[in-house]
Design brief:
It comes from Himantopus himantopus (Black-winged stilt). By secondary structure, this protein is α/β, with parallel strands linked by helices. Helices cover about 35% and strands about 30% of the residues. The protein is rod-shaped.
Length: about 130
């Protein structure tokens, strides 16, 4: 079975690449360096190496504190939660043009809740007899 993509976090000392592009905790590029040099730098400053872009040549790693890693994980979780799911939901509501006032208010509240949850809403109004 294929390996699943690991969650964002420290890669520890398991770095499969020999040459890395390293960025420090302030976001400044330290350039290309050998894996052993990056590990020494990590130990000297008490930081952790985090893989940012594996597909780049060479792969991009960033030195981060535990707090920075935690904040980035929270940001990514929020972004994932906020993004619409594949095959986003379409909520459909239909009612007659002769609807009672309280029923109309109830359905309006329901539509507002769906819109807050970022659902698409389709409203159909049928003509009363």
């Amino acid at each position: 079975e294929p390996k699943r993509k690991a969650a964002f976090g420290s890669v520890g000392r398991r770095i499969p690449h020999r040459i890395l592009h390293v960025i420090d905790q302030d976001g400044e590029s330290l350039g290309h360096m050998h894996r052993a040099d990056a590990l020494k730098l990590m130990d000297q400053h008490g930081l952790k190496l985090v893989l940012l872009r594996e597909n780049a040549e060479p792969p991009v790693y960033r030195l981060m504190t535990g707090q920075q890693i935690h904040e980035e994980q929270l940001k990514r979780a929020e972004k994932k939660k906020a993004s619409p799911k594949p095959g986003s939901y379409v909520k459909e509501l239909s009612f007659s043009s002769a609807i009672a006032k309280n029923d109309l208010e109830t359905k309006t509240k329901q539509i507002a809740q769906w819109i807050e949850k970022k659902h698409h809403v389709k409203v159909t109004i049928r003509q009363a007899k």
